[in-house]
Design goal:
about 220 residues; mainly alpha; three-stranded antiparallel beta sheet; globular
Length: about 220
């Protein structure tokens, strides 16, 4: 692939992919909405604090590379933007909903295990179980137009391998092979997947509240 997104570019594309599904009534997004999405404190790793100017610069670069398109609505004076990254008539990549959801989460959160992908894509697509998520990730790693992801070596103390997207260039797997922190006895009695699920439920509710607040402000402004 001739793609090498910067961290800011990956974040913007990931946000557009996410909001296209989770808030379709507000998509395409204004520059302000993209900045807010990029800087969310939930469902983002790492948390960023990008300015409107930084996001605009990123959007302009992505526009010049034909990954983003500016659109104008009837009667709207505010510029809005939509991605052309995948699943459009102009896109090179055509992904299933599950593949698109997995790629979106990795663009927003970096390396993820199959269990994390299954849980963290719950607003984007559906996986019946972790095995199905793993199958989709393995297919992305072996895709004839890819690979789009790479399977990382299992970390010490971890049960599952993680996967990382390749849209920001080749991955140095040695950077991901680090000793995992010690796990407390109480935490070890709860499955890792269940912990992730509970964390995501809290993050999803937090995100819902933030989106409702943003929508209310836009209606009253």
């Amino acid at each position: 692939m001739n793609i090498n997104f910067s961290p800011n570019e990956a974040r913007v594309i990931g946000c557009l992919l996410e909001k296209e599904v989770t808030t379709p009534d507000q998509y395409p997004l204004t520059l302000n909405a993209i900045t807010t999405a990029c800087n969310q404190k939930s469902s983002r790793e790492p948390v960023m604090a990008l300015t409107d100017a930084e996001v605009l610069d990123t959007v302009e670069v992505l526009k010049s590379r034909h990954y983003i398109q500016e659109v104008t609505g009837s009667g709207s004076r505010v510029a809005k933007f939509q991605h052309r990254f995948c699943n459009t008539e102009f896109s090179t990549f055509q992904f299933s909903d599950q593949e698109k959801g997995a790629v979106c989460v990795m663009l927003l959160r970096g390396a993820q295990s199959a269990g994390e992908i299954r849980t963290r894509t719950n607003r984007l697509c559906k996986f019946s179980d972790v095995k199905e998520a793993e199958t989709v990730l393995d297919h992305l790693a072996e895709h004839p137009k890819g690979p789009f992801v790479v399977k990382l070596p299992r970390e010490n103390g971890k049960r599952d391998c993680r996967y990382m997207h390749l849209f920001s260039g080749a991955v140095d797997v040695d950077n991901f092979v680090v000793a995992a922190p010690a796990v407390t006895t109480a935490k070890s009695n709860v499955s890792e997947e269940r912990i992730v699920e509970l964390e995501e439920q809290v993050a999803s509710l937090t995100q819902d509240v933030a989106e409702l607040r943003e929508l209310l402000e836009s209606l009253t402004s």
